[in-house]
Amino acid sequence: MSLKQQTWILTGASRGIGRAVALELAHAGANLVLGARNPQALEAVAQECRALGVQAKSVAGDAALDQTAQFLVKAAKVIGNFAGFIHNAGVLHPGPTLWELSEAQFDEVFGANVKAAFQLARYAYPNLIRRGGGVAVFVGSGAAKRNVAGWGAYGAAKAAEHYLAAQLALEEPRITCFVYSPGPVDTDMQRQGREAPGPIATMFQGFKEQGHLLSPEQSARALVRLLQTDPHRFHGKIATYNDA
């Protein structure tokens, strides 16, 4: 389907995969509401998108907060032709064993990956249903299915996010909902993993040394291609980079 003049909400848009997806959507003619916690970096991405001839609004804040989620959806409604959202924001906090994480770190991981997903659905779904449908994409991870020492909270949060997406797909068939698994991508999160204490660093170092890392642009192009070519075939499922 054409994305031209559609309006999409994208979280985690200030860097990495999120920035690459924002620019790829803008190249496809989509208008954007961009969310992230760093206002300066976020606005810089919004300016890059506007330079490509589309509307782009930056909404800085934590998407796990009720007010931020409301602002994101309201901004999409103001632009018009609200088509869906991509929840890309995530926090890893790699290295410590699960019990060594602080309560604040644990809350941040679950807030970015799970609660923000809930808040977006909470406000976006009623609006998309009133329009007759839309698309909800949750950027997932292989960590949801694999136990590795040093990413316990992240893996648990991604498993919960995957379940949340499948539940939404079951409950509301009018909105195409799926998880996008982007593959190992060369981002700040990968760098954090390589520099983390403990054995998890070996795994992340291996991704880079063995040449397994995709660029953010490669992963973003794959996601946008999925959105342009019958995304409903992945409703309730996990789509991967290779599916594009």
Automatic annotation (TrEMBL):
It comes from the Bacteria. Its EC number is 1.3.1.28. Keywords: Oxidoreductase. Pfam families: adh_short. Residues 6-188 form the Ketoreductase domain. GO terms for molecular function: 2,3-dihydro-2,3-dihydroxybenzoate dehydrogenase activity; oxidoreductase activity, acting on NAD(P)H, oxygen as acceptor. It is an enzyme of class 1 (oxidoreductase). PANTHER family: BENZIL REDUCTASE (PTHR43008), BENZIL REDUCTASE ((S)-BENZOIN FORMING) IRC24 (PTHR43008:SF8). Belongs to the short-chain dehydrogenases/reductases (SDR) family. This is 2,3-dihydro-2,3-dihydroxybenzoate dehydrogenase. It comes from Calidithermus roseus.
